[in-house]
Design goal:
With 162 residues, the protein is an all-alpha fold. The chain contains seven helices and no strands.
Amino acid sequence: ILDMDSQPKYKAQSSNQFFYNRMTLQTPVPGTIAQGELPSADAFATGKDAEGNFVTMSPVEPTPVLIARGADRYDIYCTPCHRASGDGQGILYKRGVPTANLNDERLRTMPDGELFNTLTNGLGLMPSYAYPISVEDRWAIVAHVRELQNRTDVTKQVDNRK
């Protein structure tokens, strides 16, 4: 008698006479894309325009809510290396690993799309954060970094007046 306790099934690594290759677990058809992972070629998903150049400005408006979300994600993923101030003197720096100072002029003038691309694909010793951080949150982090840089600019201007 067949019931839920004893039912015919195949285990993933077992042999299966139905398929020509005799494998139960079949490889996906070439070009298969997982649900929810459809790649997009727009600036929001890639940080690049139609010509493949990094977008200068984020395609997402930097609202206070977005910047707050970016600050939250930055605290989780970026602060250990770059510190809350963005000066790059976090735990890795203390252990002798060079870490980027987000307030450097080179990073201040870098297009938003390039910052997004660095978060997405990593650069140098920095790993890719495409898996743990959603596209929306990566743009939020870019907005927060720009906010940090603007705060540092204002602080420098005040210090120069003294």
